[in-house]
Design goal:
The complex is a heterodimer of chains A (188) and B (510). With 188 residues, chain A is an all-alpha fold. Chain A contains eight helices and no strands. In chain A, α1 packs across α3 and α4 packs across α6. Chain B folds into two domains: 232 residues, FAD/NAD(P)-binding domain (3-Layer(bba) Sandwich); 193 residues, Cholesterol Oxidase, domain 2 (2-Layer Sandwich). The chains are: A mainly alpha (188), B alpha/beta (510).
């Protein structure tokens, strides 16, 4: 996705599994502070940005993760999304410890989900990460300390390097050449 | 959002677009933007097509998810096929990866240039020939050392560790105009201090009359009778929807889409290299994250990204540095989950993340697979794995020497280590290769240069063997890995190759 369009929703079943998965792999504060929907929203945006084949693989991973729980002894035939906390946690622990190829996809999914959790501003504040005031302060310091040097450096970007018969300076570019809105047209 | 004069985005294009020009350049990163500026300044009629969007400095914020979705190809979620898989990310926006990299600017090591000349048959690639181009880039893009007040505690701790071990550590050279030290490089520099191509060569190219079209994916290079005739592609609408067709007729085509997309485009266009090397020979400088916890606040997000590089082991193919990860990125690489992850992340401000960059070998390959698009195959050889483990060990040793209390290693399933003895005991047994957790941001070598068409895809100056008027101008042309950050090498080669094309402009009627 290049221009950040709206995210397609996960299929309902996959979303249900994703919710349960997030409840297990994210810290318990996620559910306690009612942040699960925001994490899932962020996850859907991230999935939408992935290459289609990666998105499909992770969506399938959710479905397989759900069904494969039935094979686990402690699950007693239930799907992952139907397991209680203790059984669900034990199941995920065993999957994440495995070195099988499906487990690699589950680990990747876990990384993505916890990334989404720690992308939430309240969570970041709770662990002491609040970069906006810091960025504002050092940006001010930069301009106050080095303003003239910065302006000179920025102006040099478009300055001709050396005069020569082949070179066209910016002042020689005609106004018609600037900007280019084309409707079924032909450029020069 | 206003755009610079001469730069169009998808919103400006309402119907099929047909253009003519002297040179069409595919990609606006380190290679594409540089060559665009050089050619435009020489009076060549240039069109640049960039698949990604245009994002001005004011839009850059410390929001990792948003940055991944807007500035990176496929949300930064690339992964090689192989065990272990290597995660990789590359920029996709006006300015390419230079918008999201750390700005490290280092000249190609002399030993690498010598190897390229002697072993790979590349002409005019010695230090004497390259130095003027390095110097020109450094002067134009404000390459220099960091102002001291911007160096963060995480970098200082790594330096303290290296000093304690007696290892060579050097301050980083970066393309920055008084970097403020926001530690936001990978989300786009919010002050504009990092002199990415979006702030330097792209505006320079525009100022000299080049036209730049963002949100435009090139589908094919068109060739007739062994001579290139232009490119075809389409506008990319929001959400990735396909927009109007774009056709550019040009007398020369320069492909600068990066080491994955460049070979993918050329193969998609039906082009083959007699060398059989197109899409092969991929190297990617595998990196690994070593996460160290200290007893005191480090607050690694306050200060510049990678202020230093440990170069003691460069001859062994290992370089190390500290880079702060945002909370979401750190959580993504941490081994735990649930309550355990929460406890680790509660100490976020006490963490230093550092790691090795490994000089690898060209064991990777790009393939276009039906229904699966461009896929990257990469084999972590025993030699590469040994270097990774050694690099991780050295990084951990430096961090312990700096006072780290416990360290999480990038080996899946490995326990935390709490002192150097712990580390030695753990590494006394072989680390399973497939347990390595690796990532890459340096992809190189998939259209390697050589004067000999049987050995290289392009000649010494980027001209594609066998197709007149077609050039490659990005890290694809590297004959092999360089062991350090590749941006300056890409830019210097682009300047050099642009100079050659300008000298030969009559041959292509430019």
């Amino acid at each position: 996705m290049t221009a950040g369009g709206s995210a397609p929703h996960l299929p309902a079943r996959a979303r249900r599994v994703a919710r349960r998965f997030a409840e297990i792999v994210c810290p318990p504060e996620m559910a306690a502070h009612h942040r699960t929907d925001r994490v899932l929203g962020e996850l859907e945006l991230m999935l939408a940005a992935l290459a289609p084949e990666a998105r499909k693989a992770l969506t399938i991973t959710l479905v397989v993760l759900d069904q494969a729980a039935r094979l686990s002894r402690r699950s007693r035939g239930r799907r992952f999304s139907q397991l209680d906390d203790q059984a669900a946690e034990a199941y995920i622990r065993s999957v994440l410890a495995s070195r099988s190829i499906p487990a690699e996809f589950v680990r990747r999914l876990k990384s993505l989900v916890v990334m989404c959790y720690y992308e939430l501003p309240p969570v970041q504040r709770e662990i002491g990460y609040h970069p906006a005031p810091y960025i504002a302060a050092v940006t001010r310091r930069r301009l106050e300390s080095y303003g003239p040097d910065i302006r000179a450096g920025e102006a040099a970007v478009t300055a001709p390097e050396q005069a020569g018969p082949e070179q066209v300076g910016p002042e020689q570019v005609g106004p018609g050449d600037a900007g280019m809105v084309v409707e079924g047209g032909t450029g020069r | 959002m206003s755009t610079p004069a001469g730069l169009s985005t998808q919103a400006d294009v309402t119907g099929d677009l047909n253009l003519e020009c002297g040179v069409v350049i595919v990609g606006s990163g380190a290679g594409g933007a540089t060559v665009a500026a050089e050619l435009a300044e020489a009076g060549v009629d240039v069109v640049v097509l960039e698949e990604g969007g245009y994002h001005p400095t004011e839009s850059f914020r410390p929001e990792t998810g948003r940055a991944l979705r807007t500035l990176y190809r496929d949300g930064g979620g690339g992964a090689t096929i192989g065990r272990p898989s290597v995660l990789f990310a590359e920029g996709r926006c006006v300015g390419g990866s230079t918008v999201v990299n750390g700005g490290m600017s280092w000249r190609t090591p002399a030993r690498v240039l010598e190897r390229w000349a002697k072993e790979d048959g590349v002409l005019e690639i010695g230090e004497m020939e390259m130095d003027p181009f390095f110097a020109r880039f450094e002067a134009r893009n404000s390459v220099g050392l960091q102002d001291p007040e911007t160096i963060g505690r995480n970098s200082l701790l790594l330096k303290a560790g290296a000093d304690a071990k007696g290892w060579a550590i050097v301050p980083n050279h970066r393309n920055q105009l008084h970097c403020a030290g926001t530690s936001n490089c990978s989300n786009g520099c919010p002050t504009g201090a990092k002199r990415s191509m979006a702030l330097t060569s792209v505006p320079r190219a525009l100022a000299f009359g080049a036209r730049v079209i963002a949100d435009c994916r090139v589908d094919r290079v068109t060739v007739s009778g062994g001579t290139v005739t232009g490119v075809t592609g389409h506008v990319v609408r929001p959400g990735g929807r396909q927009g109007p067709r774009v056709t550019v007729r040009a007398r020369a085509v320069i492909v600068a889409g990066g080491a994955l997309e460049t070979p993918a485009l050329l193969v998609r266009s039906g082009l083959r290299s007699p060398s059989g090397k197109l899409g092969r020979n991929l190297s990617l400088h595998p990196n690994a994250n070593v996460v160290a916890f200290f007893d005191f606040d480090v607050t690694g997000w306050q200060g510049v990204h990678q202020a230093f590089q440990i170069r003691e082991f460069l001859a062994d193919g290992i370089m190390m540095s500290a880079q702060n990860l945002t909370p979401s990125m750190l959580a993504g690489v941490m081994p735990g989950y649930g309550r355990g992850l929460g406890e680790l992340m509660a100490d976020y401000n006490r963490v230093v993340t550092a790691g090795p960059l490994i000089e690898d070998t060209g064991t990777g390959r790009i393939r276009n697979l039906p229904g699966l698009g461009t896929q990257v195959f990469y084999r972590v050889t025993e030699r590469i794995a040994d270097r990774v483990v050694r690099g991780v060990e050295l990084t951990a040793e430096a961090l312990f020497a700096a006072g780290a209390r416990r360290i999480v290693l990038p080996f899946n399933g490995a326990p935390e280590v709490r002192d150097p003895g712990d580390l030695r005991r753990l590494l006394a047994r072989p680390v399973p290769r497939r347990s390595l957790e690796l990532y890459s941001i340096h992809l190189m070598g998939t259209a390697r240069m050589s004067e000999d068409p049987r050995r290289g895809v392009v000649d010494s100056f980027g001209a594609f063997h066998g197709v007149r008027g077609l050039f490659v101008c990005d890290a694809s042309v590297f004959p092999g890995p360089i062991g350090i950050n590749p941006m300056e090498t890409v830019i210097a080669l682009a300047m050099r190759n642009a100079r050659r094309l300008i000298e030969q402009r009559g041959r292509y009627a430019l």
